Amino acid sequence: MSRSCRTLALCLFAFLFPSILSAAPATFESAKTLARQQVYHDRNDHGSFYCGCSWEWVGRSGGVVDAASCGYRTRAQPNRAARIEWEHIVPASLFGQQRQCWQQGGRSNCKKTDPVFSAMEADLHNLTPAIGETNADRSNFRFGMLPGTPYQHGQCDFKVAFSERTVEPRNEVKGQIARVWFYMHDHYDLTMSSQQQRLLMAWDRQQPVSIWEQERNQRISRLMGHDNPFVTGARQWTLNHHNSGAGVVASTRSAERAPASADNRIIGNRNSKVYHLPQGCPSYGQVSARNIQRFNSEAEAQQQGYRKAGNCR
Fold this sequence. Notes:
It comes from Halopseudomonas bauzanensis. The protein is an alpha+beta fold.
């Protein structure tokens, strides 16, 4: 078989069976690298998310902003204003606070103990390159309409009302934001206020799926093994939508299939002081080898200051 035929066959196979060839990132760090290399590699001249600025790629996932390309002006943080960062369109704190792990130790605890949080944090559908300062100013604020709020970042069409903890992005990305929010809340069974639902439903209607959004969805689906059905039209969001929760089920099953310890004893994490049982604890096989402490019983683990992982059933 010629090289061109082999390439064509591989491409056809990838098209027909994307989930087999997919390699969804396991961590936020790996997700940023994949997003840079296989999703946004050719998009740095097409504009950052909130401001439409060009940038030059630097390193594995970062970038240097060309502020003159979009008339961007630093508001308060020159270092972050000069670089591209990876924005969670649905903030990590928003989806994290809906997980028990967050209540027991915040983001760091969730990263160590909760496979569902890790899947959400690394979900490529929810990541986009943005100027670091706008990423910081957006924080975890809700989206809203701010007709009387002035621009604070030069010519960037991005409004933030700090006292109201509200952000209004440029029109060009409002529809994409809505469909990403629908996807994340549906896939990971998150709750959303009625007010935010109504706003995003309006944005979804007003800003239809663009050619780039379709292409982005296809690129990400080849990596994640599934697409965003709110981009393809396979699903529609209605008020008080019934979530599928497919991502919760998939992440939990994946963690449960993780290889168990050879001696099948209780595993403790020296860093977090959390222990995991060989049955019923999804993160049992996910503790880094250098942090493992083994115990013969829960009593032994507790005597040494360890507590059971919050996601154990």
